[in-house]
Design a protein that fits this description.
By secondary structure, the chain is mainly α. It is built from 13 helices and no strands.
Length: 271
């Protein structure tokens, strides 16, 4: 028998050492403003690609809205607008890649943005499925809340539904409860994805580790991360409220800034 077989403390050098978990760094309260400034610079370094990315977001949103109008379900626009914020982190992967390449001084092409090569594609797809399930859960919860406050009647046209939502007691109750529930879901999604999605673009780690790291990043930097969540909400709400036109600028701005948020909060890999 070899000495390695007889010695229980012997190390099998043929196996690679386990990777150390990502390190969360402490950040200043004003860090989110710096991320926005860095994202703004990135956006205007390649304005055609960045604003083009925003145009795709606008076109998709407008197309879904037109479909809802055609199906006489325009009242669901508010639900889907909130849902846009849930899957937004995944939709911005191309913007993360653009900022990553710009930071390294590399050239960026349309192919790089449209067909992003990630370090952990399967793990990123897992998070994509998770975010999609949260979106479906939100839509289902919203329809259940409508049934609770308005009964089994079908969702009325928007011109009838909107006045009822803000003028009738049941509408106001639905608005308050729906906002609280939607805010809770959005908070979970933010903590889950704010760091994990850009991390899986760059690092070959598992999705669970990325999600846990993202939650730790929010927990250990609660003040600045809540400010960042508020800024994302304000910019995205403005983009949607402007009949989606504002998303041409606000969506790529938030996407680029999110990459800088990740690089600021998570320490570089050893070596």
């Amino acid at each position: 028998m070899s000495s390695q077989d007889t010695n229980p403390d012997a190390i099998d050098h043929s196996m690679p050492p386990p990777k150390a978990p990502p390190v969360v760094q402490s950040i200043a309260m004003d860090a989110p403003w710096r991320w926005l400034a860095a994202g703004w610079r990135d956006m205007w370094m390649r304005p055609g690609l960045s604003l083009g990315y925003g145009l795709v977001a606008v076109g998709t949103s407008a197309g879904l809205t037109a479909l809802l109008i055609y199906l006489e379900l325009f009242s669901l626009v508010l639900v889907l607008a909130a849902g846009f914020m849930l899957v937004g982190p995944l939709l911005a992967v191309g913007l993360y890649e653009m900022s990553r390449k710009l930071a390294k001084g590399e050239s960026v092409t349309r192919k790089d943005v449209a067909f992003v090569s990630t370090a952990a594609p399967v793990q990123l797809a897992f998070i994509g499925v998770l975010l999609s399930l949260m979106l479906l859960a939100w839509i289902r919860i919203a329809t259940l809340l409508f049934a609770i406050f308005f009964g089994v009647e079908s969702i009325p046209p928007f011109e009838q539904f909107f006045p009822a939502l803000i003028l009738e007691p049941r509408g106001l109750a639905l608005l308050v409860v729906g906002t609280l529930v939607g805010g809770a879901i959005a908070t979970v999604v933010f903590a889950t994805a704010v760091v994990s999605v850009p991390m899986l673009l760059e690092r070959d780690i598992d999705a669970v580790t990325a999600i846990i790291t993202s939650i730790r990043a929010v927990k250990e930097n609660l003040g600045p991360m809540m400010l960042w969540a508020w800024l994302i909400l304000v910019l995205t709400t403005f983009g949607i409220a402007s009949l989606f036109v504002g998303l041409v600028v606000t969506f790529p701005l938030v996407g680029h800034a999110t990459w800088h948020a990740y690089k600021d909060v998570i320490a570089p890999e050893a070596g």
